[in-house]
Amino acid sequence: MAKYTIRPINTGFTGKRPVPGEVRKSEPPMKDGNLEPGAFYTFHFSLYKYLEKYPVEIGAPGGVLAFLLEGDGKKILIDTGMCETERANKYHHKGGSQLPGEAIDEALINLGIQPEEIDYVLFTHLHWDHSSNCHKFTNARFFANQTEYEFALDPIPLYYKSYEASQLGIEADFKKVKMETFLEETEILPGIVAFDTPGHSPGHVAFEVDTEDGKYIIAGDACFGLYTFTPFPEETLMYDITPPGRFCDIVGYWKSARTLRERCGGDINRILLCHEGSLLESLKDRPVIGLKQE
Ligand SMILES: [Zn+2]
Q1: So what's the pLDDT on residue 47?
Q2: What is the CATH number of the domain that holds 9?
Q3: Does 32 reside within a domain?
Q4: I need a labelling partner for 274 at 20 to 30 A (CA). Which of 61, 98, 124, 157 fits?
Q5: How far does residue 79's CA lie from ligand 1's centre (Å)?
Q6: What pLDDT digit, counting tens, does each position of 238-249 carry?
Q7: d(Cα 71, Cα 144) in Å, to the nearest integer?
C-alpha cells in the first residue's frame, strides 16, 4: 500500500499578516470593519447575536496552505495556493500579501523540487487561493471534482471574484490546464481517496491520505478552522458544530463537518485545513506530517 508524507507549504496570507503569538476571536462581520462592497457574509441570522455573546477563538490568521505529498515514487500537490500580492489586492482581499519565495513554484524550488517534477495536482476546490499558479506544473495531470469544475467555469456573479471569472477581464490559472474530473468518492491514486465535502463551495472535496502515521485528511476549506468542531456553547441551540460565516450551502457544510469528524475517528488534529492558524504555527516543529511516530 502506498504511503505518503505530507508537507504543508504556506503561499501567503489573504489578510493582514499575524503578529507572533496573536490570538484572534471571531466577531460578527458587521463589527470587524472588514465588510467591503462585494464581500459577502452569509451567517445564519442567529449568529450575529450569538457571536457577540460567545466569540470563538480562531487562533492566529491562517495563511494559505498548499500540501506537497511524496510517496510511491510520485510528487503530488493538493491545491496550489494564492496569487501574487497585486492581483490578490485588486480582485480579492485588501491587505493580503505574498512575499518573494512564497508562490508555490518558488517555495518548491526552495525545497529543491523543480515544478516539472510534480506528477499530479489535485484540487479541493477551485477558488483563487487554492488554484493560482497551477499552470506552472507543466508535466502534471490535474484533477478536480466535476461539479466544482462546472460551477467554476460558469459561476453566479456572487462568485466571480472567488473563481476569477472571465467577466472580470482576467483568466483564472485553472483554465490554462487540462482538467480531468471525477464525481463521488474516488481513489485518485493508491492511498489517496477523494470524498465529497460540499458546503463551502458546490463541489468541494477532501482527500484522505495514507501515511506511516495513519490516515490524515486534507480538507481544504471544507471548514475554515478547527473551531468548527467545537459544539456551540449555547446549550438550548444544541449545535454540534460551530457554524461558519461563509458558505454556499449551510446544510452541506454542516453534514461535511460531521463527515470529517467521523472519518478521522474524532481525532480532529488529523484534519488538515488550508487556513488553520495552529497548523501553520506547528510547521516550525513539524514541517513534515505522516512520518512514523517513534
Ligand atoms: Zn475557498
Answers
A1: 61
A2: 3.60.15.10
A3: no
A4: 157
A5: 11
A6: 889 887 777 889
A7: 21
Residue 166 lies in a domain: yes
Among 162, 193, 218, residue whose Cα is nearest residue 42: 162
Calculate how far, in angstroms, residue 129's C-alpha sits from the geometric centre of ligand 1.
Answer: 7
Ligand 1 centroid to 273 CA: how many Å?
Answer: 11
pLDDT at position 27 is 55
Instruction: Give 111 Cα–ligand 1 centroid separation in angstroms.
Output: 26
In 3-state terms, what secondary structure has residue 66? strand
Distance from the CA of 163 to the center of ligand 1, in angstroms?
9
CA of 236 to the centre of ligand 1 (A): 31
pLDDT classification of 43: cutoffs 50, 70, 90: low
Residues 6+ apart with CB under 8 A from 59: 23, 24, 225, 227, 276, 277, 278, 281
Could you tell me if residue 238 is inside a domain? Answer: no
Q: Beta strand pairing status for 120-122 and 141-145? A: parallel
Measure 204 CA to ligand 1 centroid, in angstroms: 9
The alpha carbon of 293 and the centre of ligand 1 are apart by a number of angstroms equal to 32
Q: How many domains does the chain have?
A: 1
For residue 52, being part of any structural domain is answered with no
Partners of 143 in beta bridges: 122, 180
Instruction: Check pLDDT > 70 for residue 31.
Output: no
Pairing between β-strand 65-71 and β-strand 205-211 as defined by DSSP bridges: unpaired
Give residue 266 CA to ligand 1 midpoint distance, Å: 24
What separation in Å is there between the alpha carbon of 126 and the centre of ligand 1? 7
Domain that holds residue 146: 5-26+58-229+245-282
- The pLDDT tens digits for 134-150 are 999 999 999 999 999 99
**pTM of the full structure:** 0.93
pLDDT given for residue 32 in this prediction: 46
